Amino acid sequence: MTGNGYNAEEPVDLHGAAPPRAAAAGPPSAVPAERPGPEQLVAVQPPVTADPALWGWRARLRKVTGGLIKPGPGREEARHRQAEVAVRQHLGGGRLVMVANPKGGAQVSTTTLMLTHTFAALRGGPVVAWDNHEARGTLAQRAEVTAPDTHVWHLLGAAERLMAVGTAGDLTHYLRSQPSRAEVLASDTDPARAEQIGPGECGRIWLLLSRYFGLTVMDTGNNVRAGNWQWAAAMADQLVVPITLEPDVAQSAAWMLDHLDTRRPDLVSGAVTVVGPATAAAPPPLRRQMLAYFAARTALVVEVPFDPQLAGGQPIVHARISDASRRAWVGAAAAVADRLAAQRTPRPDQLQPQTGTTPPPAPEGHLPEQPADTGRPPPRAAHASVTELHLRKAT
């Protein structure tokens, strides 16, 4: 019997490969483990350093050749692009950055505003600068927009209503919105007021700000023993230490680090030092000595140049900042962002439900107990920080 009947063999092609044998009948096979996922339908985006140069002679060459020659960015431009990516990275929610140096004239307000402007401009907000002086501070005076004429005590007066039925829009009645999309919360401006902001008031203000702002940058006062200063030191996720290379300013910062080391050694070891311009250049040996001290004492040291827009105590117009200054502050913000991103914080849905009774609230002025010091620095991110490329690293 020929053809395809029973016991008949399939014809053999003498000039080609033999046909494959039919698979044995059986249950349907499982889905292959190597099945492509939907992410393979999206093209992989090149890194920011792959785009053509926008700075210097490389950008001019691309322009004069009509784009026929498109050199990549130089080292400084590539680092700046990476720093911008670092500023935009995910930081978690409700993060508090403490900017502190008890010495007047250490550029604490300038640093607070510039970090807030940089984060808000690159992240698209919402970021708020909080002037946390126990009485009157000068942060709001340095802001470009000084309206409305509200401050922390107005906010505290509305705190109960805002917590009950308030919205993010209601909160803006008490903030000064800047063109960079940053918000500013002013300190007390009433000369007749006798009360001071203490830890209890700080807690209520923070409860409101952290509800609507993922990142708060705090300008602190000069009294490290004041209740609001101590509250900030206990609650901060990140410390930023502004200094100038002048002995009294640097010594004040060093004393503050000694003070914090007794309560928050993790805050000190993970701090970012921002070196601003001094009224007179420090002698080279003294400069090297100061930079080496803070590089060994804190996690990162960033230098920012002189900018007339930031000098003299005048309002800071962010759009008028020089390119060199703007790029340096992006590097400073990237250093802060990398430190915050290295601190893993659980999402609310990942927290375990509370069991048992709730402990009574601590009395006003009492700082919560800090965990025992393990002698280890806070956890670092698994990947290398992009800011390590051009910042002084602690030894």
TrEMBL record:
Protein's UniProt keywords contain Zinc: no
Recorded superkingdom: Bacteria
A GO CC annotation given for this chain: cytoplasmic side of plasma membrane
A biological-process GO annotation: negative regulation of cell division
Keyword terms of this UniProt record: Cell projection, Cilium, Flagellum
Gene3D superfamilies: P-loop containing nucleotide triphosphate hydrolases
Low complexity bias spans: 17-33, 340-357
Annotated spans, Disordered: 1-36, 340-395
GO MF term list: ATP binding; ATP hydrolysis activity
Protein name listed in UniProt: MinD-like ATPase involved in chromosome partitioning or flagellar assembly
